[in-house]
Structures are given as C-alpha cells and as structure tokens.
Amino acid sequence: MSDDKTITKTSQIRIDVHLNKENLPVNIEWDADDSDFEGKESAKGMMLSIFDGLKQNAMRIDLWTQDMNIEEMNLFMFQTLATMADTFEKATNNKELSDEMRDFVHHFGHKANVFSPEHKH
Asked: How far apart are CA 17 and CA 29, in angstroms?
C-alpha cells in the first residue's frame, strides 16, 4: 500500500433512508459517484461500519426495512459475514484467522438455512 496521502479525487456515496411516522425505515435508496449504474438503487437492509482511529472505536449503523423477511435477513447476514472474512484477509494477510471466520460463516449458513438442500458440509 502506498504511503502517498495526496488526494487526487473525492467520491461520494449517498444513502437516503425514508422513515414512517414511528421513524422506522420504509425504504432505503443509495447511489455512488463511481457506481456502474445510473440513478438510485433500492435496498431492504444496510450495515455501515466506520472505525474512528483517534478513539479506537468502531461505530455502526444497521438498518433494515419493515418488509425485509427473516430469510432475506439470514442471507444478508451470511453474505455480510462472508465478505468480512474476505476483507479481513485482504487487509491483514492473515489467512489462518480468515479461514476460521469462514468456518463460522459456513456454520452460520447451515444454521440459517441459506444453502440449497444439495449443499454438502
């Protein structure tokens, strides 16, 4: 990774959360300057994690719409956990711990019934 901290570009990610009168998400829309699509995309759920380097603290925003069902939440969590293991390995080069995370993700996938019936352990 380069030590050059010269900013050559700024890119934005925008998230619009539409709430009902109880302040619960009804719809989530997002777009990004560098996306490969035009306009806004709709989403049923999102997880945003931000690490504050000064406070050494992770902050997060977890939102999902009222029409996101349990099966979708199971799949969303499974896919999120899987990509976290990939991100951790990419950032740290720690394959051993990343593989342990993947083992848990696989276990979670079975418990959450996200695999097809033909899937082998």
From this structure: 7
47-67 pLDDT tens trace? 999 999 999 999 999 999 999
- This prediction has a pTM of 0.86
DSSP at 98: H
Quote the distance between the C-alpha of residue 107 and its chain's center.
Answer: 19
Is the same domain home to 15 and 49? yes
- Which residue range(s) make up the domain with 50? 1-67
Please give the angle made by the CA atoms of 88, 52 and 106, to the nearest 5 degrees: 25
pLDDT digits (tens, 9 = 90+) for 106-118: 999 999 999 977 7
Is 61:48 a contact under the CB 8 Å cutoff? yes
What's the rounded Cα separation, in Å, for the pair 95 and 106?
16
